[in-house]
Amino acid sequence: MIQMKQVYKKYSNGVMAANGLNVTINPGEFVYVVGPSGAGKTTFIKMMYREEKPTKGSILVNNVDVGPLKRKRVPFLRRNIGVVFQDFKLLNRLTVFENVAFALEVIEEPPKIIKDRVMEVLDLVGLKHKARMMPDELSGGEQQRISIARSIANRPKIVIADEPTGNLDPETSWEIMNLFEEINSRGTTIVMATHNREIVNTIRHRVIAIENGLIVRDEQRGEYGYEG
Ligand code: ADP
Ligand code: ADP
């Protein structure tokens, strides 16, 4: 599903954010990515959805090496990968419906399929009744639900989330986690960078810890492992 071999990333300013990453993530897994700020977590996951290119090494995602992928092929990669961000990244001039439909329009799905699919995923996240609203009329937790709906609208095999609960209060964070659990239980692979110690130590999954661009720990049903 996702396989990295000897992956290095050097940014243009000389910073080495990946220093020989080797990892295999299998279909259906739920993986937390933890580690101190600046450790290389975001770089690790950005390379999976080809937001950053590795300097060296190979990254197979669904058997496609995403490193050398041409820019115009990236939308087809994204069809198989949903992405959820800490700050939601919704388009504020579009309605909730349009935000979710956007990902499907990009890959030119027929309008009827788009409508059905959007309402289906909005229903799954419990916000079908807010389809006509604008993002800024919603709470943070609701906005994150919309961004999760958007991430799964293409029925991707993989959902990648970068600190999805980072801007949310604890109660809302648990609700968002329950949604990821539900999506994972339907067979979708989840890779989630997080600083949420309580969540990682309660809803147990594989934990990959990154420090200085290297995987320093990789445990099934692991713990968060850092203080604070
Ligand atoms: P984390 O997500 O664990 O905080 P990042 O992957 O964001 O770590 O960053 C790893 C290192 O790479 C840090 O030193 C950071 O400053 C640096 N870095 C991240 N993005 C860039 C960039 N676009 N250009 C230069 N350096 C970057
Ligand atoms: P409710 O649906 O009743 O509002 P919440 O989702 O807000 O419940 O969670 C209430 C508390 O239950 C949280 O503070 C958290 O400690 C715990 N909790 C919620 N979901 C989980 C979960 N999946 N695993 C463990 N504890 C959970």
Give the topology.
Layout: E1 2-10, E2 16-25, E3 30-34, H1 41-48, E4 56-61, E5 64-65, H2 74-78, E6 81-85, H3 96-106, H4 111-124, H5 140-152, E7 158-162, H6 170-185, E8 189-193, H7 197-202, E9 206-211, E10 214-219
Parallel strand pairs: 3-8, 3-9, 6-7, 7-8
Antiparallel strand pairs: 1-2, 1-4, 4-5, 9-10
Bound molecules: adenosine-5'-diphosphate (2 copies).
Residues 170-171, 174-175, 177-178, 202-203 line the site of one adenosine-5'-diphosphate.
Function: Part of the ABC transporter FtsEX involved in cellular division.
Subunit structure: Homodimer. Forms a membrane-associated complex with FtsX.
Keywords: ATP-binding, Cell cycle, Cell division, Cell membrane, Membrane, Nucleotide-binding, Transport
